[in-house]
Amino acid sequence: MGQRADSIMRWCVLAAGAAMFACFAYVVWTWVPRTDIRAALVGLCAGLCVLGFLWSLWQRRQLCRFADELCRTLDDLIAERRPEAYFPYEDTLTARIQGKFMQYYDLMSEGRRQSRQDKQVIQELVSDISHQVKTPIANLQMFMGILQSHELSVEKRGEFLDTMAGQINKLDFLLQSLIKMSRLETGTFTLHVEKANLYDTIAQALNGIWVRAEAGKITLSVECDHSITARHDAKWTAEALGNLLDNAVKYTPVGGSISIRVRPWQFYTRVDIEDTGMGIPEEQCNEVFKRFWRSEAAAAKEGVGLGLYLAQKIVTRQRGYISVRSAVGVGSVFSVYLLT
Q1: What CATH fold (topology level) applies to the domain 106-186?
Q2: Beta-strand pair 268-275/331-339
Q3: CB neighbours (10 Å) of residue 102?
């Protein structure tokens, strides 16, 4: 159908050109008195008609070549490959349009890549959550079945109920951690970063671990001038420091020590949290901040592997960062850097 229409259009152009030439020849032959002038004008008109026809053919050929190049470019992009005939530095109409096609293709490719990455993250997250939830739910079901189908003494029943309460608390902690993680990753909360006193923030973080540290006979020490300030959100930064301190208490043996030291620098204020705990192998120091990651050595301790991940996310959102130095059997130092 397209070829037929193109052929009809070509014949229409020829017919129009012939009609114009006939009209011009008739006018010249009628109104010009000298025969030689008549012939010259008619010949000039014929030459112009021929040149116009040739020019239209050349233009049509250029247009077809232009359309073919764009079609090849689109075919390459649809097949998700770079066009072979792409010359981005040429100052031609084809190159400019190809450049726009490439910009659109790059945007679409980035969108597809991000979509695949988001899908993979969601799949990993669902898998991680399923793994973390499976054990406490299985324990609750088991203990509930025992309580329902067996006659137990008051003491034994109390032990089972205490164990179930512990599993429920673990599920609640996991749920709260997942909510915080979701808010951090999706940006559905607002950080109020401002100049604030660090001593007060550290004191707020210590409130959550003080009792457990005393129960484990762990010595706590704080070295922080009351006048030191840094740009941070006091509530969320206390959450991050609290997670670091919680880990320190969890993995420090009875009679150990945890010290907090604050050092203001030119651009950052550094908060060191040092413990005398079990330590982390050097090759695992970069792994500890991953979501749900836990080393085999720490498997016996209660936890879901979200504390350090959340701490890093909170500090990073405030344009700070966290580093760690550790030695197995000696202890660890987690350093938090906040903008001064």
Answers
A1: Helix Hairpins (1.10.287)
A2: antiparallel
A3: 16
Q: Where are the domains positioned within the chain?
A: 2-85, 106-186, 194-339
CATH number of 194-339: 3.30.565.10
CA pair distance 68, 71, nearest whole angstrom: 5
Closest CA to 241 of 318, 324, 336, 320: 336
* pLDDT confidence tier of residue 2, bands split at 50, 70 and 90: very low
The Cα 100–Cα 129 span in angstroms is 43
Structure-block tokens of residue 198? 């660090």
Backbone angles phi, psi at 231, to 5 degrees: -85, 110
Condensed to tens digits (0 to 9), the pLDDT of residues 14-37 reads 566 566 656 655 554 565 455 655
Residue type, position 257, single letter? S
Q: What is the C-alpha to C-alpha distance for residues 10 and 126, in angstroms, rounded to an integer? A: 64
Is the pLDDT at 179 greater than 90? The verdict is no
Asked if residue 294 lies in contact with residue 250, where contact means CB atoms within 8 angstroms, the answer is no
The rounded distance, in Å, linking the Cα atoms of 165 and 70 is 68
pTM metric for this prediction: 0.58
Residue 190: CB atoms within 10 A of its CB come to: 7
